[in-house]
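Appendix B, example 12.
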Amino acid sequence: MSNTTQVRHRRPVGNHRGAGPTAPPRVRRRPGSQQWAAWAFLAPVVLYLALFYAYPLYRNIDLSLRNYTVRSFVRGDAPFTGLKNYRTVFDDPTFAPALLHTVVFTAVCLVFQYAIGLALAVFFNQNFRLSATLRALFLVPWLLPLIVSASTWSWMLNSESGVVNAALHAVGIGPVNWLTSPSWSLTSVIIANIWIGVPFNLVVLYSGLQSIPAGLYEAAALDGAGPWRRFWSITFPLLRPVSAITLLLGLVYTLKVFDIIWIMTKGGPADSSTTFATWSYQLGFGNLLPAFGPGAAVGNLLVVAALVFGLIYMRVQRKQALS
């Protein structure tokens, strides 16, 4: 074979004209580095939840399962008693009234806070003149410290010098012992808590109304639907997700209301305004001989109640998402 034939069949080495550039080598990332980055971002949240939620919950459960006294609380050698503290709470004559007061206080506050907040949200959604200023004024009860709000209501509902009794006397109604009568003490703290909780419902529901397209109302108006028909057919159904989270947050907050009741009535008179929150504090810190175990048991009952309602809310939301 000649040299010319060998040259023809020889393959050229390297790039030739018309061939693209050589692709750069790919840098492989280690899967472990991505996992470590994810854990680094999660670490602050996990640490926060462990320190401020998990550990206090564990300590509260431990308190409810042991016979803690002041000495054993300091020394840390309280004997294990199992469910004895829970049986003590259930057998206590205060349990039934406290449970009833907690249910009534929570239910009445939720209904009125939501109804008034929804009415105000619909009212301010019309965007009239000075609506922003008036809406800001309605936020004042929510911004005030609870101790200030409770003290103000205690002064207003005072039997002798309160402005509420003065107004009732002006229209010919006798004085009412709002804070010292067993018949009115629970009503008094309910009124104060409704006043404090309305702004929260107003803000959340007003933000929900802003997300409803205005074209739906215009189409309904063209079809002849009146204001009430538009509310029940458009506003209320489309506000269900926002209403659900509003009621859930209000429920969790109302279940644990303590400072308002304690400042105004201290759960009295004669336990007429005692709820689980005030009873738990009274058992653990309000007596000369504190009962840490039963007080922690009552607190755990509140935690279980909030957890149950939270799970119910999640289940309802999941059904709505699937439907």
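The radius of gyration is 32 Å. Residues 1-10, 12-18 have pLDDT under 50 and may be disordered.
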